[in-house]
Design goal:
single chain; alpha+beta; Mannose-Binding Protein A, Chain A; 3 domains; eight-stranded mixed sheet; 5 helices; 8 strands; 44% helix
């Protein structure tokens, strides 16, 4: 009886398969490292099953896909793009608002110039829509305010740096009363028209009011090379600046 001819195993093929399996496992590690343990376990199980069946050949397990990681990366990129877009819109909006505010300010000044046609009383100086008079008498803060009220005016409320510069150049007096006090509450400075005088205003001498409870009235003082504000006793004697609005 002739012996059965058994084909010789293709060693080259098996080596290539084994090498291919190694390459696939390397790819698996690069694609999804956290699945390495599961893949090795599946591979061992497959090899044991193959041996039990007598095949003696292990089959490579396809590398798993990581959809969650891909979604996280995609969401991160979308977040960066969205943030950049929002920053661009915010910057554009700020520029638009600045332009609108500048236009509104110019229109307001033009309107006031048209409405401020009335002349100031004799011996009063005019700046924009207001008239100013500096008293020639040395009075306390309350007496100075009473004098201004008798003239149809009130002590000066400073609305802008330009206004303060005008008053400073209009008189040679170094110190004079301004229309602000904190007599109603220590440290709560208010102008005579009710508006709040900020403690952070750069016009304060030495960075802010430093007087005690007996220095409750605002006076303009002469600092080196500039004029500043300071708290002073309301009973001190000084000149006062009266202000009258001529806006129709």
């Amino acid at each position: 009886m002739a012996e059965a001819i058994h084909p010789r195993p293709n060693v080259t093929t098996e080596v290539r398969n084994t090498r291919g399996e190694g390459e696939e496992r390397i790819v698996d590690i690069l694609v999804c490292p956290e699945s390495l343990g599961d893949q090795q376990q599946d591979s061992v199980g497959t090899e044991e099953s193959s041996k039990s069946l007598g095949t003696g050949r292990s089959h490579a397990v396809s590398p798993p896909w990581c959809p969650i990681r891909a979604v996280v990366v995609l969401l991160g990129l979308l977040s960066v793009i969205l943030l950049a877009r929002l920053l661009g819109l915010a910057l554009q909006h700020k520029n638009d608002m600045d332009q609108v505010l500048l236009t509104l300010k110019n229109l307001t000044e033009q309107r006031d110039a048209l409405l401020c046609q009335e002349d100031c009383p004799d011996a009063w100086d005019k700046f924009r829509c207001k008239c100013y008079s500096i008293s020639t008498e040395w009075l306390s803060w309350n007496e100075s305010r009473e004098f201004c009220v008798s003239q149809g005016a009130d002590l000066l409320v400073v609305d802008s740096k330009e206004e303060m510069d005008f008053i400073s150049t209009a008189t040679s007096y170094h110190d004079f009363w301004l229309g602000a006090t904190d007599e109603a509450g220590e440290g709560m400075w208010r102008w005579v028209d009710g508006t709040v005088l900020s403690l952070d205003n750069p016009s304060w001498s030495r960075g802010g009011p430093v007087g005690g409870e007996d220095q409750n009235c605002l006076v303009r003082v002469s600092d080196p090379n500039q004029f500043k504000w300071a708290g002073e006793s309301c009973e001190e004697q000084s000149r006062g600046v009266c202000e009258q609005n001529v806006l129709k």
